[in-house]
Amino acid sequence: MRKGVMRPGHVQLRVLDMEEAVVHYRDRLGLIEVNRDSQNRAYFKGWTEIDSFSVVLREADEPGMDFMGFKVTTPDVLEERKQELIEYGCSVEVIPAGELDGCGERIRFDSPTGHYFELYAEKEQPGKWGISPKNPDAWPEELKGMRATRFDHCLLYGDDIDGTADLLQKVLGFQLSEQVVDQESGTRVAAFLTVSTKAHDIAFVRHPEKGKFHHASFWLDTWEDVLRAADLISMHDISLDIGPTRHGLTHGQTIYFFDPSGNRNEVFCGGDYTYPDHPVVTWDAEQIGKAIFYHDRVLNEAFLGVVT
Asked: Domain VOC spans what residues (predicted)?
């Protein structure tokens, strides 16, 4: 059941060196730098996004994710979800409007996997970057790097992925689209959830430590764009994790790499879609190599073990 949660809206990442990180996200990944605030946080957006930002960087002593935010349809829905989160047992904090520049009031809450999430209803909407909302051109000629079009999803690592999946489904209306299950024990190893018609808007992998960040993912239009991203990774000696390749889960075409602080990024295209009447797709845990890297059919150690 949909509960007025529309889409992933933003993610705040910790970086070790702000200027190095800005070069990576602006010039290599190709996001648009839109702002620096009074806390020296840097704000970015994909060029197709109508909201004022989707990625925030904060300089810190260790990398990782501070929080991920989702946009809801109205302030009334925001209040309704806040009350349901409190009733569910979450620790809920109200963040006043303007704490993130251009963003309205936010409701921050914890989760069984130790991650922090936010809901918000209002954010400034300057529209797509570089093109007019009337008779728009196909794309802006000034785009840089990989030309990422939007922030798409995060993959997070934590212990109680069943608990967080239950929270997202019951309170926020997410749908379980795909999963990886150990057939002998019945343990769910990974969960992919969507609140839209995408293959997933957030995903989780079971991991002994709470609150770990695996990657933030950004959408590209075509497989040729993913291959071009691979060229740029080599041209600029960006640390490569794996790819280009295809996922079995969701069937997206992908490449993984690291920002200068060690946070993993993904750019991808393609993939499945999910409607409310679709059954859950299940992969056997013994096939997890093929599920994640369909061509190689094995997992590399960095993909399994490197999290921030």
From this structure: 7-122, 150-270
Query: Is the Cβ–Cβ distance between 202 and 193 less than 8 Å?
Result: yes
Concerning whether 295 is annotated as a catalytic residue, the answer is: no
* Residue 3 structure tokens: 């509960």
Active site residue 266: yes
Global confidence as pTM: 0.95
State yes or no: is 273 an active-site residue: no
Examine the residue annotation and report whether 142 is marked as an active-site residue of this protein.
no
Q: Which one of 82, 106, 123 terminates a domain?
A: 123
Digit-coded pLDDT (tens) for 211-230: 999 999 999 999 999 999 99
CATH number at residue 286: 3.10.180.10
Active site residue 116: no
Compute the distance between CA of residue 109 and CA of residue 93 in angstroms, rounded to an integer.
Answer: 6
Please tell me whether residues 155 and 289 are part of one structural domain: yes
DSSP single-letter state for residue 28:
I
For residue 295, what pLDDT is reported?
Answer: 61
Catalytic residue among 115, 153, 207, 214: 153
**Ranges 31-35, 148-152, 164-168, 289-293: which has the least confidence:** 289-293
Which SS3 state, helix, strand or coil, does residue 166 take? helix
Q: Which residue among 10, 200, 207, 214 is the active-site one?
A: 200
Closest by alpha carbon to 129, among 32, 206, 29?
32
Cis peptide before 244 (omega within 30 of 0): yes
141-145 own/partner pairs: CB under 8 Å, 24+ apart:
143/30, 143/47, 144/26, 144/27, 144/30, 145/26, 145/27, 145/28, 145/29, 145/30, 145/232
Among the listed residues 266, 273, 275, 294, the single catalytic one is 266
Residue 136 lies in a domain: no
Same domain, 237 and 164: yes
Please confirm, yes or no, whether 120 is among the known catalytic residues: no
Among 123, 142, 168, the domain boundary falls at 123
pLDDT tens by residue, 103-139: 999 999 999 999 999 999 999 999 999 898 899 989 8
Please tell me which residue in 25, 120, 157, 256 is annotated as part of the active site: 256
